[in-house]
Amino acid sequence: MTTKTATLTAIVIASQFSFSLAAPSAPISESAHIIPLPNQMESTPDQVGFSLTNGLAIPDGWLFSKQVTRILSENGIKTRLVPTENEADIQFKQANGINKEWYQLQVSPDKITVSFNAEQGCLYAIQSLVQLIAKDTKGNPALIACNITDQPRFTYRGVMIDSCRHMMSAKDIKKIINILSRYKINTLHWHLTDDQGWRIPVDKYPKLTSIGGLRAQSPVIGDRDKPNGTPYGGFYTKEEIKSVVTYAKERGITIIPEIEVPGHASAAITAYPEFGNSDIPNYAPKVQETWGVHPYTFAPTEKTFAFIADVLDTVCELFPDSPYIHIGGDEAPKDQWKVSPTAQKIMKDNQLRNENELQSYFIRRVEKLVNERGKKIIGWDEIQEGGLSPTATMMVWRGWVKNAAAPALAQGNTIIMTPNSHFYFDYAQGPRPNAPEYETINDDQLTWQRVYAYNPIPLGCTPDKEHLVLGCQANFWAEYIFNLPKWEYMAFPRVFALAEVAWTQKEKKNAACFYQRLLKQFPYLDSQKVNYRHPETGAPAQPNAVIKR
Ligand code: ACM
Known about the structure:
The chain has 18 helices and 26 strands. It is globular. Bound molecules: acetamide (ACM).
């Protein structure tokens, strides 16, 4: 055991015991180690903090006491409800500002004050508070004294989970959500339909999940060109989806569902071939068994739009609080539309000059359906090919396309940055274990340092357009992310870097200081049995975790 591991182990053990009666706090030599770094924080080393030996008293019946109590107790702080605010250790003050994510947190030896405008800010204050837990010089638990005023740099701080290539159980997704909420990530983008599987049930179209949810086989682990002969399938029940959405909401996370159109549609078209380009030669859709881009796109017909409308009704029922529906729009080959007499006639009837304009027509038709249901669309950056709708939000993923965001920004569209060069967390993050199950889709060394150095304001974006950049997101495409331990290995420590890029003003960022704070997160991750990657050795934290498909 190295000295570092021994220290970490000691902290883990220390962070797990419940606090009991003891004397008031002595000075604390440890410094605050909050991720993402608050935008304004004063904390003097070697001050006396707030003793946690008696736990914390929370005012009973107070608006957010359930959520606050949950976060505190998950972090080993004993809480008790007291009848009046005067008896409480935490004074909550609701202000009337407009920024819902703003908060102030003051910790002194005799009191804790939390100010906020809305629930989000209150929860963020508590998430910062639990990252102030330390040991005083007598070895007793206490909160580091500090004075924080904070609000995020960007309003959209996201993570995307791909349940199509490989599924994670609702329970595992909840574990991820709980961890993300600690680091003030506020959006989970849930990729639910693709060529290799359809994962959301729609009552009117049961074959979407019974046929579209099952592929005959997948590539073997360790050789992406060789099929393994083993069927793979599954889908989430409506109850599971609702329970994940509610769980996320309680933790300040909105889930944005993605229904892919017009490409990445093989699974849906296999279940209901009439919604594909069935008039082309050799039409034989199947749920795809290999990764990559496949030619099966939806036909641009009224029948298909009626089907999509039905799907959107279910999506709105299951995701009532998401202001957006992500409609995909990426990697839609035009080969089938080029040879489909029906698609060609639709182009002619609508004076569309080429298949890119047909793609734009398709997206606008779907956008109208989404808008009619009170929501807005997000689409991958190909939605600008053939003309970008003025009301769409564009998610920029093609890091190799020069100035990909420029036309959208010039037109006044909002964008979210998720370039593969910095935010594809399915790429390797440095040397990895030799075991075949640690294979990645791309061996690029997408290190936490590269993520941390990223500025989401794209090159050439003038200051008057910066407000159009809503934020950024990390994508976990799941061809090689078979289950939770592999997800965790790919996620940490890079998710910490993403959180700080999205939250902390760029002038305040400092990679060396971040690294020190990053090391302090491991006791928490260990306590949650998270299989993170050791940033120096590349070794998994849970060497016995089973990550096979
Ligand atoms: C994508 O990676 N095709 C959005």
